[in-house]
Glutathione S-transferase (Rhizobium viscosum), 209 residues
Amino acid sequence: MGVLRVLGRQSSINVRKVLWTCEEIGIDYVQEDWGTGFASTRAPEFLALNPNGLVPVIDSDDGILWESNTICRYLASRYGRDDLLPSSPWRRALVERWMDWQATELNSAWRGAFQGLVRKDLAYSDPSVITISARDWNGKMEILEKTLSTTGSFVAGDEFTLADIVIGLSVNRWLHTPIERPGLSAVAAYFERIKERPSFRRGRYDMFP
């Protein structure tokens, strides 16, 4: 089996999802820096791998794959990690529900505040856009707070899964972005649990942004 190639800069939250998954599983991989500040994702050789010009992309024994959450699911299945992505249809659906929520609802909420305050993107410089985004972002995190108050441990239940990789990185982003945040004790305790995982510590995935 060849060594997995992961294309994308580590400062990308989506690349970190894949790297953390690799660390959690124990996959041998090499990471190549592509994206802002590094090799251009608009270069023909990169677009030949992902026509969207976005990171991450993996080059595996099975072929080329892009879309971060899809890559994480593929790797967990490829290496038989039923704990990270259950084979049971119902248990798997509970994990994938939160992964899809992160990619759609949560990402849509934080975009204005994060891009405006952290990335300094002029397209999101309007204070009203940032205010609305911060409000919506906090609202999504309150949904997570209620869930964690019920599960008591991790997003999809008692055990750590892929859902916690994608949600955990999103919580890190929320905690570090300079917005007013409500005090969410279950979310705070959850992130402390996440940070104690050896795979998280090896990758230093609490970096920001």
Remarks:
- The beta strands are 4-7, 29-32, 57-60, 63-66.
- The chain has two domains: 4-78, 89-197.
- The chain has a mean pLDDT of 96.
